[in-house]
């Protein structure tokens, strides 16, 4: 016995004379190869080939299509001609038709149709269908080569002159290929942020003069300039006959409309002196500062703090330290004029809080390391209940000492710490510590820093308590010591007077 995979792999079968194909392939050459293995050189027995096909399923169409391919190949080889390669391609409609084959029969059946027929009857019916297919394919000749098609001539829905396609359309809709639908991204945070955002109703935009200069709030022009620009805008609206619309969503909308319209009706054009003043004021702001420069300035203040002008100037590209210093002075003097000042100040204060935190941690590490002559060997950590089971005291000691040595405030300090651990012969076989990532080392160091800060705080409180206890006793002793030299001095003066009197 031989099957398709054995034939395809070229396995030599000594006594195989029966081929059973139970899973027909789209490519008929694969099945032929299995049959050819049984027709080997030296075969004396009659070779029998059995193909298992499930009735009213897609397997019928697969076998039919495979036989058509073989017939097409034989016609092309015999005639010595070429055929269009597009005729052998499987299109979308053809694939859908093949898959739907037999679906109507399956869904229309109410009960199981499995019957125990005689094996001879099944073989006879299979032999009959095979002969019918061969007769059908034998009619394909030279005339039908150019019009060769892989599809069947008649529809499977036509029976006795009646088309059952529309009657069974509901049943066969299940086999339609699914359509891709884009899934909506339900971001809960974004939804509630949009739903709960309360803003004042906006009125339609009023017209502005066509040639008015673009003035930004972060350029810090003199306030007088905005008054002149506002006066110019009001007069322009008066010249075009603009009427202020009423916004019913705003409270006191009628009163507000009346006041705005009165400003427009009473507006006057700028005189020559005001025009000269306007041109002069336009040159007094930070006109060369763009939005990009302003954002760099804000980020530099967040990173270095508002007082570190030298480092801030390095962060702002294209500006000299003098220009940054001048802008910084005006910024902190007039920052309340900015539109998003609350957001900007919160950003800068968060950065300054991180800077103060780094300074506090550095002081704590300096204080802890300074209490030992050889911290890499003598340093002790008061764990309390936070020791944990993963890291040993030797590992923690090395982490703290190397963190202090490398510099806690460096950006890549934990990557350097990880490299130091790998290069240290002390932890040559400590695979746990050597396999830690920079993020895991940072978490462990943060835990140790918290323990050190708590230990330093307890020591400071203890020293303060001891000073309070020692305070009065120390003052009396110092007083006694200070009185002794005075007593000696008096005695010596008296003795010298006695000598002179004598």
UniProtKB/TrEMBL annotation:
Its main location: nucleus. Keywords: Chromatin regulator, Hydrolase, Nucleus. It is found in: Nucleus. Residues 284-336 form the SANT domain. Belongs to the SNF2/RAD54 helicase family. ISWI subfamily. This is SWI/SNF-related matrix-associated actin-dependent regulator of chromatin subfamily A member 5-like. GO terms for biological process: nucleosome organization. It comes from Sinocyclocheilus grahami. It comes from the Eukaryota.
